[in-house]
Specification:
- The chain is about 20% helix and about 35% strand.
- With about 350 residues, the chain is α/β, with parallel strands linked by helices.
- The chain folds into 2 domains: about 140 residues, Immunoglobulin-like, CATH 2.60.40; about 200 residues, 3-Layer(aba) Sandwich (Rossmann fold).
- The strands form 3 sheets. Strands 3, 4, 7, 8, 10, 11, 12 and 13 form an 8-stranded mixed beta sheet that branches. A 7-stranded mixed beta sheet has the order 16-15-14-17-18-20-19, sandwiched between helices.
- It is elongated and about 75 Å long.
- The relative contact order is 0.12.
């Protein structure tokens, strides 16, 4: 499993004396669920960046970049401090970035599963260099896709797992990229054929349980003429809106968000257009919600009989096997499957499963 830099205390500015400031923060490195800490030593680098030009990472003004820290196995937190430095007059707001020292860039490379690091970097929200300037309680992830576009996604720093990125989402993005861009053999040829057969103005996609929206937003940055509707409970609305604001959608592609409770009736607007693909990423961990999830999938495919369903999951409990039984009972057949690996501690690999479902008759 990959591990994520998290802010336990977001960056804060302290002014020691006129013209000299320091920035401090408290971080942790945990799994996607926050239920385990990284149990091996990792060298980290810390950068303080001008918030005025952070959209272009290759040209950003870096105020400090030689701060090196060591996360040690057994730790649960690590204090970060830049030490005193002279604040440039022309720079009033900055961003604190933390990531693995071994990487040439703090951006996480998602172009290939083999390039994904064990530790995913994080960027703070912009904050003031004035006394007690404090960053908002969010953290940004920055990824590089195969088409060299930057995918930027905000998460919350709290304990609400609905507003975090989960491991299976990263594998889903890698799978979608390889399926869309592969010119040779592909692990999911049926899904690839669906992408290649796009002939209308918009390829219609629905994502269930989208959380902060990373998979659906990534797809609109990879695919021309793609319309993605992210769906989840209302609690994710703010973080999704923030991510939609900075999305760099491909030509004629768009993303929107709709509230969808699996226990309630489908909004007619969601099924107004024929659906080509339904995305489900890391939504099978809660066995109690599986009947409602499969019921929604069944309704969506009933409204669009040719729709395909791509499920990305990391098995966390034996109870998740119920999902496959329920899919069979709903006559949603498994058409294709593949496995993608993510790095894990001590050079191990973590298994992420991908399944493609659809109606066969």
């Amino acid at each position: 499993m990959v591990y994520y830099i998290r802010f336990l205390k977001t960056p804060r500015t302290q002014i020691a004396k006129p013209g000299l400031v320091s920035v401090s923060a408290l971080i942790s490195i945990t799994t996607d669920l926050g239920d385990a800490f990284l149990a091996e030593d990792v060298a980290l680098q810390v950068q303080l960046i001008d918030a005025g030009d952070t959209t272009q990472t290759n040209t950003s003004t870096v105020l400090q970049e030689n701060n090196t820290y060591k996360w040690e196995a057994g730790k649960r937190e690590l204090a970060i401090s830049t030490g005193l430095f002279k604040a440039p007059r022309k720079i009033s707001r900055v961003v604190l970035a933390v990531g693995p020292k071994t990487a040439s860039t703090l951006d996480t490379d998602l172009s290939d599963a083999e390039k994904i690091p064990l530790v995913i970097s994080g960027w703070s929200a912009p904050f003031s260099l004035s006394q007690n300037g404090t960053a908002e309680k969010v953290i940004e992830r920055r990824f590089v896709l195969q088409n060299d576009t930057q995918l930027r996604i905000w998460e919350e720093t709290g304990n609400n797992i609905a507003r975090h990125i989960w491991d299976a989402a990263l594998a889903a993005i890698v799978c979608l990229q390889s399926t869309i861009n592969s010119s040779g053999r592909c692990s999911m040829p049926r899904l690839q054929s669906r992408f290649q057969a796009i002939s209308k103005n918009h390829f219609q996609v629905i994502e269930l349980g989208s959380g902060c929206g990373v998979v659906g937003i990534a797809l609109t940055q990879m695919l021309f003429g793609c319309s993605v509707t992210l769906t989840d409970l209302a609690e994710v609305n703010d973080i999704v809106a923030r991510n939609l604001q900075i999305a760099q959608s491909a030509t004629n592609s768009e993303t929107r968000f709709k509230v969808l409770d699996w226990e309630e009736e489908l909004d007619a607007e969601i099924t107004a257009e024929p659906i080509d693909l339904v995305l489900v990423s890391d939504c099978t961990y809660n066995a109690d919600s599986l009947p409602a999830l499969v019921q929604v999938l069944d309704r969506l495919v009933q409204s669009s009989p040719d729709a395909l369903v791509l499920v990305s999951l990391k098995r966390r409990h034996e109870s998740e096997a119920v999902f496959f039984d329920l899919m069979r009972q709903s006559a949603l057949a498994m058409l294709e499957e593949s496995v993608h690996s993510l790095p894990a501690a001590y050079s191990e690999k973590d298994r992420i499963e991908m399944y493609l479902f659809g109606r066969t008759a």
